[in-house]
Predict the 3D structure of the following.
Amino acid sequence: MEFFEFKIEGPIVEVGIPLHLAIDALENFQGIIDKTYLVGANLQRMTAKERESFELKVKNFKLGSLITDFEICISGVQLVLPLISALGPQNVWEYTKETFKFLKLVFSAMHSGQNPTYEFNNNRDFTVNTGDTHQHFHGPVIFIGEKALPNYQALAHLLEQGKVEAISAGSRGHPEIVLGPEDRTLFDLPTEFQEQPIRVECEIFNFNKFKNSGKLRINDGQVLPSGDYSFSIFGSQNNINYIYSMLQPQVTIECLVEVAVNPFGKEIISKLHVVGIIS
């Protein structure tokens, strides 16, 4: 079985890496590999039974940097209509590498102001077009990327100049997944404001008077889909009305909608910026 290497580097490691940071890094890396397996196996979630069949085994924690060797283990798996036909440890790693390449390409383009476009082939493989660049990927990669994106975001957020300066994984001496301080916000979804404010009826059920932000709930039949939303006060409003509004079962607000540009489909509402409470 081939062993790979997962490494965290930076000054913080030299004086002793905080346990919570090490755990976060290892958990999110595990999550990235899990998403490749789940998509490849055409499964929705990792159950206790699936964990018996699929796991990362870690060996040889080393001093200096946080370095550990790991192997991808799959045993006793019986799959029905898998998306990756030959779902072995090497294929899981190859698709994980390809997904990282895909996500880095798409998000780098988005942050530079380009809108990637996709062309799908009959065999489910696809091409990403960014300007004059055209790169081809296997079909499951886009599904793996969507599922693994929160783990990549969390892993990248651990990076900080002067503390954690590199996180990498792959072959010893030649890692295929490499993140540096400049990648800290790479996988964050770019956001933009809708031009016109809207009015909605909602319940404000949480408010932080120090941060002038909170949570509100919108019911069915509104301009926005029902659900809970984060919000912040727009401008330099007095926050007294917002504190009192939590005593009301429902209030009408006027707000600007901040949406995240989503490379996988529909726009995502990131936050509401409340212009004022109307009633």
